[in-house]
Amino acid sequence: MMAKISRANHFWSWTMLLFSCILCTRASSICSKFSLVIHKGHCANLSSTLPYFVNFCSAHNGTMDERCCLNADSLLGLDLSSCNLHNFTSATVTGQNSNLTVDIVLLALAPNNPKLKLPSPEAFIGQINLQQLLMPKLIGCPTGWSEQTTSIAFDNDFDAINNDTEEFIRCLPPPNPCLSDDACPVNTSSQCTLTGPGLFACPCQSGWTGYKCLRSSQPFPYPIFGIGWAGSALAACLIGWLLERRGIVKVNSAGMVATVQDDHSD
């Protein structure tokens, strides 16, 4: 009997261990302070080893936390290189800390993500401050993004870092579409709102709704309408009563109103 119990406990122990390993390979911690995890991926190193990313963080007075560059309570940079990524969407990385301010300026999706597919522009929705994206050379930049080849202030050794062994390029986001006058329909009550790099929406301004924001969302002013209608009816009745009193009009027994005319004989 004891042998059966021992084998059962041994079986469940191995089952739980296997289940834990599966979870570890599907969700890897990338930022301990803000409990950020990457889903369906496994990062080769706990901390960032990408020189470009480390230099960026130092230039922005940030501090490294595993694969995150932090500035106070803001997340400035995220290094997802060598994380076995196949796809990147807005749900790839999630956090459990409500105090986190997502203000990502640099996102590294390369190098060493050989199976990564080209992300769609909608994958970066919500990242309105994203200024640089590191992508594999073989994939290139997402639609609308442009490759930057010149060196920048915080990285004078970019050419040495970005060699054939690293295989990543820097991508710059599309221009802000809200700077264009024709982003949203003209002569409407909508306003252009940036929702991500090269992405925008045209929500209605306060007090307007419907197609092209042409319908007022304010409730119908029934009290004002009722008072105006009652006042007009009362004024009409008062005028009729005065005219009848002066003999200008006369109401017969059938309720018909007739004009009274004086007969003058020559």
What does this structure look like?
By secondary structure, this protein is of the alpha+beta class. The protein has a seven-stranded mixed beta sheet, with helices on one face. A three-stranded antiparallel beta sheet has the order 1-2-6. It has a two-stranded antiparallel ribbon with strand order 11-12. The termini are far apart. It folds into three domains: 26-174, no CATH class; 179-216, no CATH class; 222-259, no CATH class. The protein has helices at 2-26, 51-59, 158-161, 222-245; strands at residues 27-31, 36-39, 63-65, 68-71, 74-79, 93-94, 101-108, 132-136, 146-148, 168-172, 193-196, 199-201, 208-209, 215-216, 249-251, 257-259. Helix content is 23%, strand content 23%. Residues 1-6 and 8-26 have low confidence and may be disordered. Residues 1-27 form the signal peptide. The chain crosses the membrane at residues 222-243. This is EGF-like domain-containing protein. InterPro entries: ATRAID, EGF. Keywords: Membrane, Signal, Transmembrane, Transmembrane helix.
